[in-house]
Design brief:
Helix content: 25-40%
Largest sheet: 7 strands, mixed
Number of strands: 18
Number of helices: 10
Oligomer: single chain
Order of helices and strands: EHEEEEEEHHHEEHEEHEEEEHEHEEHH
Structural class: alpha+beta
Length: 329
């Protein structure tokens, strides 16, 4: 059996560069070496390269190939594990589409749309059982009248970059006086921001993947943060948040969640694996959609690997199924 050449594409242009590299290392450790020859390809603003034993070698961007010891290596699949731009927002997907190289993620359109929280909320609105928080979108070039925001939405409010991943630049504001600083902070990350009503309840995250042609919903994780909300620090600092997989939920609620997230996956035309974050509203347990992550973290402690293990699957089997599904598509 011929081994397939897999480019594990990591790095990116955001503050999550190192997180992405951790994801790539964990994926590499869980790929079947008999089936796949893995090359971690790092992308930053200056260069695209492969770190070989004898030093770093630049990727030929004309055909996404690598020349090692005078021999040209082409890839059977690009496994994109960049969080944020250019791997989560459709840019690399468009590039690989042009070159005809299969990849593991959603396509360029879905990747671009789901990076925009407002567009995504509009598309999933109307799914049976799904609710979204009331919100406003602000653009940097426009005037931002704090009194209009305060009159339109109920405090507390979340202010966050509309296109950001990983909760960078996010604030929770309890009264109008806190809005200007929070707006400035979010505009430091993006030129459009979302101001959203706070939904009080339990916070959850669930992985959804197409395996062997069928959509599989993984066990749900509940996130209990000791901080006021699940921000970047809570996400990546040990001990700040507790993650319970599988979450303590009645079977009927798990079934309802599975139906809603499957419909989200289908409606957004997702491919491969995604992670959907949501809140169950205090008192009613209504499902409030937060966002879809199309290149979710894959380090050993990340949510999807936790959920794969809880489902009784091996990561080797899971990643292998994603690769074969993408190549055979």
């Amino acid at each position: 059996m011929k081994t397939k050449n897999i480019a594990l594409v990591a790095g990116g242009f955001t503050g999550e560069y190192e997180v992405s590299i951790n994801s790539a290392k964990n994926i590499e450790a869980n790929l079947n070496a008999d089936k796949y020859k893995v090359y971690i390809v790092l992308i930053n603003r200056d260069r695209w390269f492969y770190e070989s034993d004898s030093g770093s070698i630049d990727i030929n961007k004309n055909d996404f190939s690598l020349t090692l010891s005078g021999e040209k290596t082409k890839f059977d699949l690009a496994f994109i594990t960049i969080h944020g731009t250019p791997g989560e927002d459709g840019k690399l997907q468009g590039y690989f589409d042009i070159l005809g190289i299969p990849y593991n993620t959603c396509d360029a359109t879905t990747s671009a749309v789901t990076m925009n929280k407002t567009f995504t909320k509009t598309l999933v609105a109307g799914i049976h059982g799904l609710h979204t928080a009331r919100s406003l979108i602000l653009f940097e070039r426009d005037m931002h009248d704090v009194t209009i925001i305060a009159a339109t939405l109920k405090f507390p409010l979340f202010i966050k970059p509309n296109n950001g991943g990983s909760s960078v630049g996010m604030s929770k504001v309890y009264k109008a006086a806190g809005l200007p600083d929070a707006i400035k902070k979010a505009f430091g990350e993006d030129d459009q921001i979302l101001v959203e009503e706070f939904i009080k309840g339990r916070e959850f995250s669930v992985g959804v993947a197409r395996l062997h042609g069928a959509i599989k919903v993984l066990p749900v994780t509940e996130i209990i943060s000791s901080k006021d909300f699940f921000d970047y620090e809570a996400k990546y600092s040990p001990g700040i948040s507790e993650e319970i997989t599988p979450a303590d939920l009645p079977r009927a609620k798990n079934q309802e969640i599975a139906e809603i997230v499957t419909e989200i996956y289908l409606r957004l035309n997702c491919k491969g694996m995604v992670r959907i974050d949501f809140i169950l509203l205090e008192g009613t347990n209504d499902f409030y959609f937060i966002e879809v992550n199309t290149t979710p973290g894959q380090s050993a402690a990340s949510l999807i690997p936790q959920q794969v293990r809880a489902a009784g699957l091996s990561l080797m089997e899971f990643y292998g199924d994603l690769i074969e599904g993408a190549i055979g598509h």
